[in-house]
Write the structure tokens for this entry.
Amino acid sequence: MRIGLVGWPGAGMTTLFRALGGKAQQGHKGGTRADSWPLVSLDVPDPRLEWLRDLWKPKKYTPARIEFVDFPGIPPAREKGRGELMAAVRDTDGLCLVIRDFQDPSYPYERPEPDPEGDLASLKSELLFGDYAAVESRIERLREKVKKPSKTREREEKELKLLERCLPALEEGRPLREVEMNDSERALLSGFRFASEKPMIEILNVSEDRLGGDLPENACCARLEAEIAELSLEERKEFLKDYGIAEPFRDRLIRMGYEALGLLSFFTMGEDEVRAWTIRAGDDAVTAAGKIHTDLARGFIRAEVISWEDLHQAGSVREAKARGLFRVEGRDYKVRDGDILNIRFSV
Ligand SMILES: Nc1nc2c(ncn2[C@@H]2O[C@H](COP(=O)(O)OP(=O)(O)OP(=O)(O)O)[C@@H](O)[C@H]2O)c(=O)[nH]1
Ligand SMILES: [Mg+2]
């Protein structure tokens, strides 16, 4: 799962990326794929998984992971490389919009006065407009195509109808995420990876003097957070206390990203490995099994399940078994966040 940091030039994407532990790269060439830009892969902190690790002391410990990509600020229209950048932005699972709300005397860009509300609105409509242009040109092509009989005509007609419903919504400034459609229509659209269909989080990059005041949960001082990322663990505690910061923003951003993407974790445990796996809300036991190995989905028999809370309360596997807290679930069982799974299968 991959989240792109996007914003107007100089909003602080690279600084935030450094706060996440990423290595800034000068003069990056980029490309149309997200993974051709600087990327950082992070463990998702989870106290429940840490508890399981302490319980089993396994040979291997594997938390869930999430990736962040450092995109450059979106350049003005018609500038070279813009199309390529926007294609890479679409090659993500979610977007983190970085909005500048700080004054910087050395700020090397136009417009020294911050305008967070204006920037957020224009950034959103920029992303929306990219989708609009893509939908419009696809509609034009489809209108030509459906005139001639072909094996794919039925599908194309369906797609055309759907896109013709999407276009006015985009025109009104409504993101595709909010356009009502059924599952098969969503699937039809998913190949485009439209920006306004993605989950988004908005981060306000504020100046240091605003810290300690009444700030919304999505505000941070990226420059300070980038400094924090470079400190040793001990220095970090002191630093956070001095500035009245409750936790490094990095942890909060990972959590926000995970939640925005609608992701859940389930766990597997044993002496060999304690591990978190990432699924989407609503995924069933077979889908979850398939994350571990395709054989487990193919030969799925049943899942033995206990919630983390139940195991934690029981204190040990033996006690949980004695209390009958392990359940047997079938393939359609909707896996919940924090479930611990043991898949029975045969191939
Ligand atoms: N005062 C202050 N300055 C910041 C903060 N975050 C970033 N800056 C400054 O803003 C400038 C741009 O920061 P970057 O992180 O490089 O911005 P960017 O969004 O990656 O910019 P481009 O990729 O070049 O479009 C730098 O001079 C940073 O030091 C902040 O929280 N406070
Ligand atoms: Mg940058």
